[in-house]
Amino acid sequence: MTLGGWINLILSVGSVTALFLWCIWRVLRTSDRDQRPPE
Amino acid sequence: MSAPKEVWSSRLGVILAVAGSAVGLGNFLRFPGLAAQYGGGAFMIAYFISLLIIGIPISWAEWTLGRHGGSLGFRSSPGIFHAVLKKPYAKYLGVIGFIIPVVIYMYYVYIEAWCLGYALNAATGKLSIAGMNYGEFFNHYTGAGSDGIAIHFGLGDVGIFVLLVYAINFHFIYRGISKGIETVCKYAMPALILIALIVLARVLTLGTPDPARPDQNVLTALGFMWNPGDIFTGLKNPQLWLAAAGQIFFSLSVGFGVIITYSSYLTKKDDVVLSGLTASAANEFCEVGLGGLITVPAAFLFLGAAGIIGQGTFGLGFHVLPEVFARMPAGPVFATIFFLLLFLAAITSSLSMLQPGLAFLEEGLRLKRKSAVALLAIVTAIGTSFVWYYSKDLKALDTIDFWVGTMLIFIQATILIIVFGWVVGIEKGWALMHEGSAVRAPSFFKPIIKYLTPAFLITIFGLFVLKNVFGWNFSFGEAAHFEPTSSGYIRDLIGPSPDKVARLSVAFIGLMIAFTCILAYLAGKNWAAHPPVESDKN
Q1: What is the pLDDT of residue A22?
Q2: pLDDT value, residue B479
Q3: CA atoms within 13 A of residue B168's CA, in its CB half-sphere
Q4: Which among A12, A19, A35 is the nearest to B44, CB-wise?
Q5: Tell me: the pLDDT tens digits for B227-236?
Q6: Can you name the residues that pair with B472 across neighbouring β-strands?
Q7: I need a surface site. Which of B179, B311, B338, B378 has the fewest CB within 10 A?
Q8: ipTM of the assembly?
Q9: What does the alpha-carbon distance between residue B498 and residue B528 come to, in Å, rounded to a whole number?
Q10: Pick from B41, B227, B282: which is nearest to A20 by CB?
Q11: pTM for the whole thing?
Q12: Rounded CA separation B295/B27 (Å)
């Protein structure tokens, strides 16, 4: 595994994992009754 | 006529359902194979650009149009196009959103039966035995060796599993959106991720499984998948872009007819921006974060590069991996749970393929649920029987997958994004999208949705057609060469020795299109006579 391979793996897997966790956190944080677009 | 009063019981429920629809066999089998084939670096760049330009925008457009159509009282793709465009031809634009999921279900459920059958064969010790001829097993089990040989119903045959998965799918689809689809996805999706994490932990802790081959260890296996290679040369390859964009496109199930139906059961108070993004992110996590670290590295560890190169999705999943599990400590256990994982990924997708069909039969023909389910079961059973019988070289399955599961999806997605960005209009579409939203989409997505997404999609589709239909060699000027019969799909139809099954498959697709257009015509009459009630005009 080259340095480029590690960078590729970490960026790819890290970005989708971070996005997924952020989305789940936002979904769970926002209750179904409180959905207002932030201005 | 009032629309069926079905709703999702929670936001997480609809997200899991859409994610379940998107996460399928391609996440664990197709994506890793493509990334390894095209070199991890260039492929991932093209992949993430495609996610930003076509994946997420089309997903948002489909969620928004679906919810808007639902608020106008429609649940099906033909109905929603009819309501949004308000033109007599509109319902015919939407029929593709009925044909795609229903026809794909016909062969997808057959593959789903293989997964369940492989899982039970592994659990009973009949699979993943060292030295076993997996190609021969696959050819006999799936019928790829000869037409008709897979139609047997013993415990070791696929037949009983086809019947079983049919019964499971129609049981849950009959129970409805909340009690059926949502219930399955609430349990299946977390279970799928848990199993994938267990298999991933096993793969990453294998070290160097064969001391005689020290070059086949976990690090070199990950390197085979993720080492970037020559990025700039890779990015100049149009086939790489085609593969990356195609993978994003089919993996997210956008333009499929599923999201538009699922989101029609939402109200204007429900968010679609965050929900659409979360469902896409869940799919990407399963594909890149789990699929990208499991299948190809595991295969490389035991078989080396030679065992992987040239294997397609089915080759990797049903020839290579059983052999990999056979050589792995506690292999039968991991083979069982891996094929169970594939089964869970498949059933959450196949369920989603039935709902658009059911919604159209209910609202278009005004059928009761029991009658609609029965009609849908009969129609899909005819198609599945066709694919099941004409199984030699999986010709019927492959032909239908190309013309419906690839070509029609491109067309439907293009229609969808043009309707959203140009017919509804980007400003109105953007406003509709943000009604009830929990987060705001970055505003740079507006020009992307209006200009870049349709242009990118049409370019990719154009390249795809030029290559796969007209046999273009991707060269320009004097070097350019077109040979339609160089494409197997065209050669099967009009070549010097056409394939009977391929022609029958295309004729079957034609019949389905004609049948659906007749249904759309009848539905239009019904909607004119009994306009649906707008369900939430708040």
Answers
A1: 95
A2: 84
A3: 20
A4: A12
A5: 988 888 889 8
A6: B482
A7: B378
A8: 0.89
A9: 45
A10: B282
A11: 0.92
A12: 10
Instruction: Report chain B's mean pLDDT, rounded to a whole number.
Output: 91
Cα B474 from Cα B480, distance rounded (Å): 7
Instruction: Determine whether the interchain pair B223/A16 forms a contact, defined as Cβ–Cβ distance below 8 Å.
Output: no
Task: Write out the residues of chain B at the interface with chain A, using a CB-CB cutoff of 8 A.
Answer: 10-12, 15, 40-41, 44, 48, 219-220, 222-223, 226-228, 269-271, 274-275, 277-278, 281-282, 284-285, 287-289, 292-293, 434, 436-440
**What residues of chain A, 4 to 23, have a C-beta less than 8 Å from chain B?**
4-9, 11-13, 15-17, 19-20, 22-23
Gap between the terminal Cα atoms of chain A? 46
Q: Do B472 and B466 touch, CB atoms closer than 8 A?
A: yes
A3 touches chain B (CB under 8 A): no
- The per-residue b/e assignment along B118-132, b for 16 or more CB within 10 angstroms, e otherwise, is bbbbbbeeebbbeee
Cβ B102 vs Cβ B364: under 8 Å: no
Buried b (16+ CB within 10 A) or exposed e, B445-472: bbebbbebbbebbeebbebbebbbeebb
- In the block, tokens 């009969």 appear at B378
What pLDDT is attached to residue A31?
59
